[in-house]
Amino acid sequence: MPGRRPGSLGGMDLQLSGQTALITGSTAGIGFAVATGLAREGVTIVLNGRDQTRLTGARDRLLAAVPGAEVRTVAADVTTAAGGRRLLDAEPDVDILINNVAISDFATFAEVADEEWLRYFETNVLSSIRLSRHHLPRMLARGTGRMIFVSADSAVTGDADMLPYAMTKSALLTVARGLAELTRGTAVTVNSVLAGPVATEGAIDFIAKAAAEQGRSAAEVEAAYFAEYRPTSLLRRPATPEELASQVVYLSSPLAVSTNGAAVRAEGGTIRTIG
């Protein structure tokens, strides 16, 4: 297939050519990196976001990175029931579903109102549930498929400074494991990926702004963040979106059939447990 780069993961053929993947929140950051990685394996990509202009730009960037890739776009706000329905009507059948869309921010627990808790839940959890509720029965009927939830180390560590976000990422682990139980005896898998800090466009902008406000360099702000908020990190820096995406791409492959119901760590070693 034109634009496919054989062996893009260390020379390994992931046997993904000809499949179709839907990635929510894929105009930038982790979602776009996953879309690019899958496109390099010959996967037809469905990009999703709320804004068609941003989607068109993302499609152009993806095609520049992977010439000849097959890329479709659907502008739909999956954080709403109507938006989720619009996306499902446009793309009713996919082989791979990557539930990636999410919001995050620092939050002081005592100041978070009910409405904010609901906004986090609807965006980070319910959006994924809606799409999974549609696609899982279709995957089970075919006997094959991949569903991946992008979670975070906060789901396990209980990040008190981002508690609404951490709560939703924990919820995703429960949903994913429960759905995996329904795949028994099939080649369908449902997994989660525990991401740590990732150098997305938003994170880079946040560090640059903090550096300007504090009169320090971006490197100093980043080092201070890891010292205060991620002192157990072994990587000691944010992962690139591409580094995280490589894990997601592998889990999307038929080669990963024995990994099911798992919360796969890609968080730079911040979680200090063996199991």
How would you portray this structure in words?
With 275 residues, the protein is of the alpha/beta class. It has two domains: 20-198 and 243-266, Rossmann fold (3-Layer(aba) Sandwich); 201-238. Helix content is 45%, strand content 15%. It has helices at 29-40, 52-65, 81-90, 114-142, 154-157, 163-181, 201-214, 218-228, 241-251, and strands at 20-23, 44-49, 71-75, 96-99, 144-152, 187-195, 263-266. The protein has a seven-stranded parallel beta sheet, with helices on both faces.
Strand and helix layout:
Elements: E1 20-23, H1 29-40, E2 44-49, H2 52-65, E3 71-75, H3 81-90, E4 96-99, H4 114-142, E5 144-152, H5 154-157, H6 163-181, E6 187-195, H7 201-214, H8 218-228, H9 241-251, E7 263-266
Parallel strand pairs: 1-2, 1-4, 2-3, 4-5, 5-6, 6-7
Helix pairs in contact: 1-9, 4-6, 7-8
CATH topology of the largest domain: Rossmann fold
Estimate percent helicity: 40-55%
* Overall CATH architecture of the largest domain: 3-Layer(aba) Sandwich
What is the molecular shape? globular
Task: List descriptors.
Rossmann fold, 15% strand, disordered N terminus, single chain, 275 residues, alpha/beta
Can you give me a brief rundown of this structure?
Helices cover 45% and strands 15% of the residues.
